[in-house]
User: Fold these one by one.
Assistant:
Number 1:
Amino acid sequence: MYDGHVGAVGSAAAAAVSAYPSYSEHHTGWPIDIGDGGGACSFEPCFADQPAATWASANAHRFGFVIRYPAGAEADTGYSFEPWHLRYVGVDAATEIHDQGITLEEFTTRHSPN
């Protein structure tokens, strides 16, 4: 995927939408990518308007998941908005992140032992 993005938009732009090979958090087993079964806007920001994404945005925290790369948080996360990319963090953390409208990075900083 990364190489495809590099070929289409160049290295700098590819880094904002795709992890370098072996650097995706998918290898950890904590995230999942969701779809709507019909392929509408798959892996595109417009997926946020699809029923599966609106449900996930409203309810994923109840099951311990957060939208890993939320809209407008690119400076914090380092990645463009990905409404299909969910990350498991546990129900308590997910609920706090959802209710406060913060990123996983902000949550981690607030809860660091320092």
Number 2:
Amino acid sequence: MSTTPPDLELTEPVIPGPYTGVRFGRGDRVFSGVALASGVTILVTLAAVFVFLFVKGLPGFTADASIFAPSSSSFWTYVGRLLFGTILAAVIALVIAVPFSFALALFISHYAPRRIATTVAYVIDLLAAVPSVVFGLWGARSLAVAFQPTQRWLDHNAGWLPFFKGPASATGRTILVAGIVLAIMCIPIITAISREVFSQTPRLHEEAALALGATRWEMVRYSVFPHARSGMVAAVMLGLGRALGETMAVAMVLSASPTITLNLISSSNPATIASNIASNYKAEDNRIQTVLLATGLVLFLFTFMVNFAARYIAGRSERGQK
């Protein structure tokens, strides 16, 4: 006679799983198959993109030097300048977005009353739904004009720094403005992930810190941040991926060319790989199309390496907490 209570009896047959001593139900096997198929699909898609860029863009690495004249003498000089602009715009965006996003996430998860926190979180999430073109139009037509006095002030008062040496751009459409636009686009991603990992801090850890006499900030510093470190790294890397790959917003804000400069407020602005592709993809010369595909391959590999390094750092952080 069965001793299993009626409310605990299995409603479907249990099928032995692939692991010794582990038994899975039919629903578990279906879910496992769907998850496996999803993972394989993502990997196959990434592999297909890589193969396409490699096959179509490989001739671009040895393209004739006349294609890059007069700004560059070879492909590597050309893509190096574009990669510099890509990294510079992304760094500007992260310097602005990361502290602001962490502060917003912390305000939502630990400081704001529930009603206000829900409203703020909803508004921040809505920013992620705004198309890139809208951000680009706003940056080029509104922010650039409004930011002109600030850029002139930076030129006059901080011109001794290479970043603000000037002369300030007459249009206001500079790499600094593009970085601010990218920062606003990164904030919803970083904030959403950060507030989730902050909220998952064990309540007992927070209460123990407060019971020992810690202030609210000390509790956050010694309980919340260590627990959420790997998630914070993942949030920043996802924001970096958005900044590195953004196309239309940067292309609409900047009138750029492949150049290397640290001056953030002048009219001479470095271009990013993505914005350069968006600006020149209609070229009729097939050689230019090939070069653009080659630069896309460089951006693909660079983004992959950045995310791989971020995953390694996050993994070390998780192992250090055990």
Number 3:
Amino acid sequence: MLGILDLIEQPPTSRILGHVPHAAWSIVTQSESGAWHLEHYGLGAP
């Protein structure tokens, strides 16, 4: 989760993403401008 927070330019203490479900995964993409975007978060979690 720290890596995702860094990519979306949030501090490591940010709670913007809420709880990270066990064994969940996320999709992060990079645009042509070089900016990162969190497209999906917490996928595959029950």
